[in-house]
Amino acid sequence: MKRPLTPHSRWGVALLAGLALVGTWTASAAEESSAPAGRAGAATHRAAPLWRADPARGLASFEGTETKPGSVRVVDDPAGRYGKSFQLHTSGEKIDDATRVRVETRGHRTADGSRLRFAKEGDVYYVGWRSMWGPLPTEKGDWVVLWQLKDYGSGAATPPLSLRARGDGTVDLEYCDPDLKTTQLWHTGLTLNTWHDFVVGIKISEDPTKGWVELWHDGTAQRLTGGTEQYRAATLRGDWVTDKWGVYRSDGVTGQATAYLNSPAVGRTYGDAAP
């Protein structure tokens, strides 16, 4: 016959059960911390991002805007889902023969007024945002850039990364290497008047064997050219690189265009930046 537990033995059982729970939690935390940045483990932990555009600050969250011609303003989400959003609109009328049509935000300015630029070899950043486009005219054989990782300063030549809409009804992520050779890393169908989430993971490096690119679309990690989720790439060009969102297009495309931007952010992990 079992003997009834005394108060002291009950306390001992409770203590052992508590230690077991602590051990389980510690193991779980260790597994999560060992998960690659931006993968499932990191996605469960959201730290404060390094930068997030706040619609209440208007355009002060960005280092600048480029409206040639166009306007950038804060509006209510026309789909009624995500609240205040940034609207980037262009009439599509060229301001002169030499200037391509563009309406874009440029860079990141934090709440204290400082600029966040990607310039240090080996740094890792995750850039996340939500986009909706429409109208967005395209033309076969031409392109419309919707997001780009743009290079600045000495040695700047062309953006290392560009998210482009094509005239064939697709949108793709294009990589341009230091020799200006372009590679399509990923593509999918272009849908208008619908929100889509993006996160781009970037390891900053001038060396194409050390830098890399990752991409999530609507919350799912994407396989890039070569069949892997991480593509080796030289992501640092010039003195620094930074982000641009909006509409920038080749001269073969005409007509009005509008891009909506919601929850743009920069963090050190996928979970910090995902919209």
From TrEMBL:
The keyword Signal applies. Gene3D superfamilies: 2.60.120.200. Keywords: Signal. It comes from the Bacteria. This is Polysaccharide lyase-like protein. Residues 1-29 form the signal peptide. It comes from Streptomyces kasugaensis. It holds the Pfam family Polysacc_lyase.
